[in-house]
Write a structure and sequence with these properties.
Elements (H helix, E strand, L loop, with lengths): L6 H14 L2 H15 L2 E3 L5 E3 L4 E7 L6 H22 L4 E7 L4 H12 L4 E5 L4 H14 L3 E3 L21 E3 L4 H14 L6 E5 L3 H14 L3 E6 L10 H10 L3 E5 L2 H13 L5 E4 L6 H7 L1 H4 L3 E4 L11 H9 L7 H16 L5 H9 L3 E2 L4 E2 L15 E6 L2 E7 L4
Parallel strand pairs: 3-4, 3-5, 5-6, 6-7, 8-9, 8-10, 10-11, 11-12
Antiparallel strand pairs: 1-2, 12-15, 13-14, 15-16
Helix pairs in contact: 3-13, 4-5, 6-7, 9-10
Length: 407
Amino acid sequence: MIVIIDGGGFEALRQGLARAIGGVAIVALIAGAAACNSTTKTTNSGGTSNSKCGYKIAFFGALSGSSANLGINIKQGAQLAVNQYNTKNGANCVTLVPFDSQGDAKLATGVAQKAIQTPKLLGIVGPAFSAESAAADPIINEAGIPLITPSATNPILATGGTANGTPWTVFHRAVASDANQGPAAAHYISGVLKATKVFVADDQSTYGAGIADAVKSTLGSAVVGTDKTGADGQVTDFSGTINKVKSSGATVIFYGGYYANAGLLRKQLTAAGWKGTLVGGDGANDPGFIKAAGTAAAEGSIFTCPCAPASKAGGTFDTDYKAAFNVDAGTYSDVAYDAANIFLGGIDAGDLTPATMNTYVSGVDYKGVANEYKFTADGNLDPSKVIVWAFKVTNGAVVADQAAPTS
């Protein structure tokens, strides 16, 4: 075995070999040594360090603000994947760099500009939300850095942020879009809840309005009223919406928005004497909904998600996550874990530039703990891999209910 020594030690070795063997042999030996040194080198402790180390993956999403719970779930899932990779490949081999957008589209462009300037950044897990994705993805696309969002569900993200636009070349979505989730929620409302009068409201965000529109389109004449609210943090009094719900005769309200608003709306609906069921999408699928609504008012609420329960994730993910973070895995934790592992697989494959990583991700067929991942030409999840589940607040906790009906 030849041990390659940096600096003056290498020069001394070369000179010693020159005295022992001929020049042609030296050339061959040094060429072979250089090839060896391109992948490993000796460390002070006598081990080897992987030349594929030193690269970075980013998390982009809310780590503070009213929707931080969802972002933290995602970030921790990605962090677990990186931690496990580093256990096998050396401490701090790959770094997960967090970028906190607060879930705010107005901040997302600045966060994106900062993210793309990160040295040795090979991919982004996120952006987490649809509105921030619409703002940030053009910047990320221009920089050529591949992204895998584990949670942004508005369909227009697969067409460059507009209904009939050109897809971003770096965009990949690891879950179904609201073109799948919205109809599934509607079918649950009509088929499982047997509701014939449904009120639909949303928070006017890219995500909330998008999924609400999909629900309305599918339910058709069963929709007896609609309304718009402010976004999280912009409204605390839902009395106007509540009056419309009560006067409509609806037994179900679908709310397109995030858990803080949805929980507060549920709390005020209950206080006003309305006894129907609130149904929300994946943005409301968080224990923070119960905290905002109160345990009694939250009971029986339904959420859909283009994801399976994290407790059903494959392998030892569920126990590994809880051991690492001392909490149960949350919405999209397992999908983010898979997204990070796709990037890590690209690093192992030697795709060490954003361009080659993007090619790798676009062509991947990866069996993860949450799902199997293949992407279509526009970056959407392959239709054969689409999953939508319904979750229910039961005894003060959000628990899996059933796979949501697709028709």
